[in-house]
Write a structure and sequence with these properties.
mainly alpha; Ribonucleotide Reductase Protein R1, domain 1; two-stranded antiparallel ribbon; elongated; (S)-2-(5-amino-1-(5-phospho-D-ribosyl)imidazole-4-carboxamido) succinate lyase (fumarate-forming) activity; signal
Length: 553
C-alpha cells in the first residue's frame, strides 16, 4: 500500500538519496484510488503541488517492477499476495466458506429480506408485497459493484445497500428501513458463528468416537505410567486414552451448550433503544417487539438480547472464544502426550508411505501432525485475550475499536479450531501402538515396582520384614546403578539368588505379572465408556467406529 504523508502547511518531506513525488491540491482527491496495484499510476499523475511523498531508490524499483502489471503474467498470480495460512494450508473448505465474503454478504441480503418481510407482515406503511418479492428474486450479490460503492462511500454496509438497490430499483427505498449497520453486521456474524459451531461439534463427537474405539481396544494393555515424566505405577494404554477422551467430551458438551446459548442481537436501532422502529410504527410498542421477535425467529435463533447498546454485548464473543480455546487446550494436551510417547517409540501418529520426515535425515518419522496441533492450539489460546480486552474497553453504547480486532480474532479462532479438529480426527483414527516396545519399557521398570509385593509375600511365608526390606534396598541400588550404565535390569535375578527370598522364588513370575499392577484401569475404561461416552454418542447418531480427518498439507 502506498504510504501518503499529508503534511499541511509544511515543506515536502525529503529523504537523502530519495526521489521526491508531490501531489497537487487537485490531485489529492485522487488518493482514494491508490492501493497496492496503483502506485505507479498515482506517481505518474501526481507531479506538482505542496503536499509530498518520497520514494527511495529501492521503492522506485518496486514501483517500476510491481506497480502496473497490465502486461505481466503476475496480474492474476495468486502467489503475489499474502494469504493467511489458515486458508491455504490448515482450515477446511467448509469452514472457509462459512467465513467467506460471499457467504457474509449473502447473509446480509437475507437479513434485509427478513426485515422487509417482517415489516410487511406488520403492515408497515410504504412496504409492499411486490417490493419484498423483488428483493427475494434479486440476482446474487454483485460484490464488484459493492466494492466500487465502498471506495466512494467509505462504508461497507451502505455500499451493499446501494448495490442491492441498483439490482432491484423498485425496492431500493425499503432496504435497511429503520435499521442500523450493526443490525446487519452483528446478526450476520452471529449466524456465521452458529453455522461454524455446526461444523465443529460433529468433528468433536467423531474425535470422541475415535478415542472410544482406541480406549476400548487397549483397555487391558499394561503400560508404564509417568508422573513428572518419571516412571510411575503402571496404567493401561486404553486408560491413558480416556484422559484425552474425557477432556474432548467436556469440550463437546461446552460447544453444544454454547450453540444453544448464543443470542441474536435482533432489531434494536442505532443505540439499542429501538427509537427508529417505534417511529416507523407510529409509537406502537407491541409492533416493535413483534418485529424483533419475528426477525430473530427468521434468523433461526431461539433467543435475542433484550437490551443492547449499538452492538450486542461483546462478552458473548468472550464466551465463544473461550469455548474454542478449550478445544485447543484439550487437543494440545493429547498431542503433547503422543509426542512424548512417540519419542519413546511406544505410540506413533499416522505416517504415510511417501511422507518425508526430514530433508536431511531421511530415516526420521517426526510427529508433525501433533506438533501442528500444538502450534495451532498455542495461537488459538492467545486469541482469548482479544475479546476479553474488546469487551472491557467498549465505551458506553459502542466504539468502533472492536471492529478490526473482531474481524481478525473471531474468524481466525473458528478457522484455527477447525484446523485443529481435522488433525485430531486424523491422528485419533490411526494411532499406532508398538506393543513390544510398550512391554519392554514396562519390564525395565517393573522389577522395582514389584518389590513391595515380593517382600509382603515372603513375609507372609515366615520371613523377617525388616531384613527383607534391607535386602531389597541393597539389591535395588545395585540394579539401578547397572541400568544407569546401559545394562539390563537384573534385580529379579539378584532376588532369585538370595536365599532369604527362597519361599517366593517359584512365584516371582506371577508376582511380577503386569496385570497385577494396573489396578482397576481396565474396568474404569469399560465403565467410563458404558456410562458416559457410548450413550452420548448413540443419542447423537454417532457409532463407535473410527472416522478420519483431512490433513491438507
Amino acid at each position: 500500500m502506498a504510504l501518503l504523508l499529508w503534511c499541511v502547511a509544511a515543506p515536502p518531506l525529503t529523504v537523502r538519496g530519495a526521489q521526491q513525488v508531490v501531489f497537487s491540491s487537485t490531485e489529492r482527491a485522487q488518493w482514494n484510488e491508490v492501493d497496492s496495484g496503483d502506485v505507479k499510476r498515482a506517481r505518474a499523475r501526481c507531479r506538482t503541488g505542496v503536499i509530498g511523498m518520497t520514494v527511495s531508490p529501492r521503492e522506485e524499483h518496486q514501483v517500476n517492477t510491481q506497480g502496473d502489471k497490465s502486461g505481466s503474467d503476475e496480474v492474476n498470480d495468486p502467489f503475489s499476495n499474502y494469504v493467511s495460512p489458515l486458508s491455504t494450508r490448515y482450515a477446511s473448505e467448509q469452514m472457509r466458506r462459512v467465513f467467506s465474503d460471499r457467504n457474509r454478504f449473502r447473509i446480509w441480503r437475507k437479513l434485509w429480506i427478513w426485515l422487509a418481510e417482517s415489516e410487511l407482515e406488520l403492515e408497515t406503511q410504504g412496504v409492499t408485497a411486490s417490493q419484498v418479492q423483488a428483493l427475494k428474486d434479486a440476482p446474487d450479490v454483485d460484490i464488484h459493484l459493492a466494492n466500487q460503492y465502498e471506495r466512494k462511500l467509505r462504508h461497507d454496509v451502505m455500499a451493499h445497500v446501494h448495490a442491492f438497490g441498483d439490482q432491484v430499483p423498485e425496492s431500493a427505498g425499503i432496504i435497511h428501513l429503520g435499521a442500523t449497520s450493526c443490525f446487519i453486521t452483528d446478526n450476520s456474524e452471529l449466524i456465521q458463528f452458529r453455522d461454524a459451531l455446526d461444523l465443529l461439534i460433529p468433528m468433536l463427537w467423531r474425535s470422541v468416537a475415535n478415542l472410544a474405539v482406541f480406549a476400548q481396544s487397549y483397555a487391558s494393555m499394561p503400560t508404564l505410567a509417568y508422573t513428572h515424566f518419571q516412571p510411575a505405577q503402571p496404567t493401561t494404554v486404553g486408560k491413558r486414552a480416556t484422559l484425552w477422551l474425557q477432556d474432548l467430551l467436556m469440550d463437546a458438551f461446552e460447544l453444544e451448550a454454547l450453540r444453544d446459548k448464543i443470542r441474536a442481537r435482533g432489531v434494536k436501532g442505532t443505540t439499542g433503544t429501538q427509537a427508529s422502529f417505534l417511529s416507523l410504527f407510529d409509537g406502537d410498542h407491541d409492533k416493535v417487539k413483534q418485529l424483533d421477535d419475528m426477525v430473530t425467529r427468521k434468523m433461526g435463533f431461539a433467543k435475542k438480547w433484550t437490551v443492547t447498546g449499538q452492538t450486542y454485548t461483546r462478552k458473548q464473543d468472550f464466551w465463544i472464544i473461550c469455548a474454542l480455546a478449550g478445544v485447543g487446550q484439550s487437543a494440545a494436551k493429547m498431542a503433547n502426550d503422543i509426542r512424548l510417547l512417540q519419542h519413546k517409540k511406544e505410540i506413533e501418529e499416522p505416517f504415510e508411505s511417501t511422507q518425508i520426515g526430514s530433508s536431511a535425515m531421511a530415516y526420521k518419522r517426526n510427529p508433525m501432525r501433533c506438533e501442528r496441533i500444538n502450534s495451532l492450539a498455542r495461537f488459538l489460546q492467545t486469541l482469548v485475550l482479544n475479546p476479553a480486552e474488546t469487551a472491557s474497553t467498549q465505551w458506553l453504547e459502542r466504539t468502533l475499536d472492536d471492529s478490526a480486532n473482531r474481524r481478525l480474532a473471531m474468524t481466525e479462532a473458528f478457522l484455527t479450531t477447525d484446523a485443529i479438529l481435522q488433525l485430531v480426527l486424523n491422528v485419533s483414527s490411526n494411532l499406532v501402538v508398538n506393543d513390544k516396545v510398550v512391554a519392554k519399557h514396562l519390564q525395565e521398570e517393573l522389577p522395582f515396582m514389584a518389590t513391595e509385593n515380593i517382600m509382603m509375600a515372603a513375609t507372609r511365608r515366615g520371613g523377617n520384614r525388616q531384613l527383607l526390606h534391607e535386602e531389597i534396598r541393597v539389591h535395588s541400588m545395585t540394579a539401578g546403578a547397572r541400568v544407569k550404565q546401559g545394562l539390563d535390569n537384573n534385580l529379579l535375578q539378584l532376588i532369585e539368588e538370595n536365599e532369604n527370598f527362597s519361599s517366593v522364588h517359584a512365584d516371582l513370575e506371577a508376582l511380577c505379572d503386569p496385570q497385577q499392577f494396573v489396578g482397576r484401569a481396565p474396568e474404569q475404561v469399560a465403565e467410563f465408556l458404558a456410562s458416559e461416552v457410548i450413550p452420548e454418542l448413540t443419542a447423537r447418531g454417532f457409532s463407535v467406529e473410527r472416522a478420519s480427518g483431512d490433513v491438507r498439507i
